[in-house]
Amino acid sequence: MSYKNFPMVPRVIFGRGSFNQLSDILTPKRLSINAPFIFLVDDVFKSNSWLTSRIPLSYDDKIIYISAAEEPKTDQIDMLVEEIILNSKERPSGIIGIGGGTLLDIAKAVSIMLTNEGNAEEYQGWDLVKNEAIYHVGIPTISGTGAEVSRTTVLTGPERKLGINSDFTPFDQVVLDSELTKDVPKDQWFYTGMDCYIHCVESLQGTYLNAFSESYGNMALELCKEIFLGNELTNTQAQEKLMMASWHGGMSIVYSQVGVAHAMSYGLSYLLGTKHGIGNCIVFDHLEEFYPEGVKLFKEMKTKHDISLPKGLCTDLTDKELDIMIDVALSLVPLWENALGKNWKKTITRKKLKSLYQKM
Ligand code: NAD
Ligand code: ZN
């Protein structure tokens, strides 16, 4: 047996208001006055001076606002990298991503592509990155994806939706300031929070489970129950706990895998552009046969928070379109293997997936 030797985020600062220490964190990392820090910021904050006025800009440092309306694309990364190279006197000192999973993934991918030749799509897969990325910092403003700790950056390319999974992908520094999540709209809070919950269920029910993943998965699952089903927490406590649930949920899948909901949700996302959090919820709602306990609790959480999920997404799809989704889902072999074991193909046929998609 050969075990995987994974890197982790080497530095993390946790605490409400810790965002104010960003200047202290970045200053020692500046390579020269000509090597700027580039802040990639969710454009939801564009007119939010509460946050943007605290971004420490010096010399040629720049903020680039990016919309999170769509999930990151490989050509978007290539264009950003080109823009940064053309507009910087020297290679940047660092890339700082401020936002949800979308901005965190963009920051990771840009920092990799600044030091690796070619286009982002060439690196979708496992361990294809050759050179160390430039210094990159992740600052989540919504909790759940675990993108702040993970070893991947999920990108949609011309061929597929697949992560750049590599030892150079994880952030060098993460800032966990739960205050940054205070204005997340309720539905989005639920969808992204459920991404974390689903990570836990899929990891804990998976065949790849081991004590490393289990311990993180259990911690995150307990936190999710407290946050989404309990009545005791103040807003601040709930925000802090969800931030840690996201972290632990992400740690849990570093050493295992996700499962059925993620595989099928990637299909929805590829064909229809359905975003990750809500897509996972739409799929997970129909997965009682795979995750009976998990789906039961999920439905309780949905009711408690008065969330109604879109229906009929796949009703009018042609066979050809359904086939595209099925192909994307089936290509994610490790996810199926984790969910159902080596013989997953006995349960998961094209017909089975079609009938599941048609319920959504
Ligand atoms: P997101 O980044 O797509 O943001 C969702 C919405 O919330 C956006 O409209 C955004 O503008 C808004 N938002 C974010 N912070 C806010 C705040 N503080 N106040 C108000 N609005 C705010 O959401 P997400 O669910 O965190 O990320 C989804 C993405 O993460 C997908 O692209 C998915 O592929 C990726 N993902 C990556 C990993 C990984 O390990 N790399 C894991 C899971 C998901
Ligand atoms: Zn996820």
Automatic annotation (TrEMBL):
Residues 11-177 form the Alcohol dehydrogenase iron-type/glycerol dehydrogenase GldA domain. Residues 191-293 form the Fe-containing alcohol dehydrogenase-like C-terminal domain. It comes from the Bacteria. InterPro entries: ADH_Fe/GldA, ADH_Fe_C, Alcohol_dehydrogenase_Fe. One of its GO terms (molecular function) is metal ion binding. Coiled coil: none annotated. Keywords: Oxidoreductase. This is 3-deoxy-alpha-D-manno-octulosonate 8-oxidase. It comes from Seonamhaeicola aphaedonensis.
